[in-house]
Amino acid sequence: MKLRTFKGGIHPPDNKHWTSHKAIEDCPLPDELVVPLSQHIGAPSVACVEVGQHVAKGQEIGSAKGFVSVPVHASTSGEVVAIENRPHPFGTPLPAVVIKPDGEDSWSSNLQFTDPGSLTSDELIEKVRQAGVVGMGGAAFPAHVKMSPPPEKPIHTLLFNGVECEPYLTSDHRMMLEESERVLQGVALLQYVYGAERVVIGIEANKPDAIALLKKQCADAAVEILPLQVKYPQGAEKQLIFAATGREVPSGGLPMDVGVAVHNVSTAAAVTDAVMLGRPLIERVCTVTGPAIKEPKNLRIRIGMSLSHLVEVCGGLVEEPGKIILGGPMMGFTQVGLDVPVIRGSSGLLLLREEDIANSPEGPCIRCARCVQACPMNLMPTTIAAYARRDLVEETEEYCAMDCIECGSCSYVCPASIPLVQLIRHGKAAVLAKKRNALL
Amino acid sequence: MSQQLYLSSSPHVHSGETTPSVMRAVLYSLVPACGVAVYFFGIPALSVLLIATLGCLATEVVCQRLMRQPVTIADGSAAITGVLLALNLPPTSPWWLTLLGAVIAIAVGKQVYGGLGSNPFNPALVARVVLLISFPVQMTTWSAPAPLGSGLDLVTTATPLGEWKNAVMLTGAMPAEMQGSMAGYFLGNMPGCIGEVSALALLLGAGYLFYRRILTWHIPATYVGTVVLLSGAFWLINPAKYPNPVFHLVTGGLVLGAFYMATDMVTTPVSIRGMLIFGVGCGVLTVLIRLFGGYPEGVSFAILLMNAATPLIDRYTKPRTFGTARQGGSV
Ligand code: SF4
Ligand code: SF4
Description:
The structure holds 2 protein chains of 2 kinds. By secondary structure, chain A is of the alpha/beta class. Chain A has 2 domains: 1-9 and 111-357, NADH-ubiquinone oxidoreductase 51kDa subunit (Rossmann fold, 3-Layer(aba) Sandwich), CATH 3.40.50; 370-439, no CATH class. Chain A has helices at residues 121-130, 143-146, 171-178, 180-194, 208-217, 237-245, 265-277, 307-313, 370-374, 381-389, 393-398, 409-413, 420-439, and strands spanning 25-26, 33-36, 46-47, 54-55, 60-63, 72-73, 78-86, 94-101, 157-162, 198-204, 223-228, 260-264, 283-289, 297-302, 323-326, 333-334, 348-352. In chain A, helix 3 (171-178) packs parallel to helix 5, helix 4 crosses helix 7 (265-277) and helix 10 (381-389) packs across helix 13 (420-439). Chain B folds into 2 domains: 19-138, no CATH class; 158-315, no CATH class. Chain B has a two-stranded antiparallel sheet with strand order 1-2. At the A-B interface, strand 15, strand 16, helix 12 and helix 13 of A face helix 1 of B. Bound molecules: iron/sulfur cluster (2 copies). The site of one iron/sulfur cluster (SF4) has 15 residues of chain A, from helix 9 and helix 10.
């Protein structure tokens, strides 16, 4: 049977073999944890502890501000030694709570086990919010917001993203293999909240072990395990929904517009911890990999550990890295150094050597149409980029720049090495600016 | 960390396929066709190939020097234009004609528009058509193949298409002996341009480009398909006058045109629907020019006309963005 997928896309070498067979290892605690107050899409949290104060593991140290925001928690027990701006994965230094671990690693006594059967759906969502659960696939959108769709948008399909289509990354893969019970527990809890008729876990066919295991464990449950064609960006939300349901999220719309909600499989596991144990999201699995790393690993890391600590735990560097990337090679963000902390959305740390970095000089577009055929959103990247370069805002918008999901497929295939995504991002910003001005 | 770190926006990896690597692959794919041409037409063909290629490279260098731009002959595009131009010339083309063609192709066909990627017309075809109109005698002096070692000299004769056109004009019917030589035409045993002689060798090269995913089926298939269907229709109406589709396929420049000239990336549409329209358009124009036009061969004109239509086609074949309504339908 032909596996389901979407139109367009690319086949970059997946480079997952470095870590896909390696069991998750607990990363030892460092001397200092830097927990940023801004780790999610939405308003940053506000510090609610003071310098010098002792905090317990899981204690709230930053409170949410507004609905699209989540609290931040201490990743271990220890003393707050500073609340100040620190280097941040987003690029500029941002406020963070700096904790000096006391070595006890003891949980806050406020956290307790709850029987989910005794909770209403709203209480359950509140627990998820209090635990600071965000989307763990990278975008870090607060989960409780997604879990509260307006009543006029009923969710009939609940979709879990176990695709992990980014090359190199294997954290979701290992989660599904080693923590399948936590994942499936979360799946059941989320189904309870949404009351969806259909529950699907989409997994790329390059993880047959995970597919087989989950199939076995879901043999009698009403959860469908859906193997998907190996193609990037199969894990992009709209492409995943299309593959699983055959429906297209309308331009400018959200998954709930087609009755679908999507969560990452690791997010499901975090929901389990939040609801059953009352434990906040203070750790995650992060794939530390790349040709510049001596011993690539899947590490269970605490939020706030520095990248240099992770590198050390992985045996150090083979050679000086040319590029430090948080996330995968297609959509991750380059970092200015290793003194940046990992945050809730950090699914991987990728270190490339200088020679792995693509840097052929940019040439003129030869109209080869590769970008057009690769684009999963069916856009004309070459045309949008050309307009965006000349700041022709209207034309940029007319060619649907706003529908670009910035997956990078176009830049990946462009033989002229044109920075298409970068140009399109620039174009999108210009379109947004124009819209804002029109409102003023 | 002592060393320099690269900061850039995603993606951080690349397919490794670059403009020069694409162009190199196209050049490799033309090797069989050039080989066959040299086999059938000998040293004259070889010299046309060399003069055209070197001429194009030299013209590109001169133009870019004059315009104080970086010299980009290393990208391989000028070399391709040179080889393709040679394949579109008769083997007996005198050296000055070939050289003139090379200068026209690069200077007028490409550099005046701003170089690679900016030219609306296929440069090699621009040169061929300019030469055809300016030097009709030299450009239509064809010779029968004289395979290397056969001891034959190149003798002037007519192309199959030309022969047919003459016969039809004189008698209104197709010469009977032309029906039988299809296999020979296919292998390359017919008078014509250097690159028209062997459809087989061209298809071999095209196969490599398909394998490398540099060529897609859209334009060649629709082009050839349209020629077969349309010429087939005429043939069915009057088989005594019109040649059958196979004749159209294996003679003249159709294979060269459909697989190499009409698939020039720069001058053809970028959307799939656009490519299909382009291919059909080329096919229709080719048949009409061949059957009713003043020239026996219509491939070059057809492709150039469709090149002219390409911006328009691109404009009206914008792909349907994911998540937007189909024409007249819902999402
Ligand atoms: S235009 Fe946007 S959506 Fe399309 S391939 Fe490029 S980055 Fe991806
Ligand atoms: S892939 Fe690059 S060279 Fe090819 S059409 Fe797109 S922008 Fe132009």
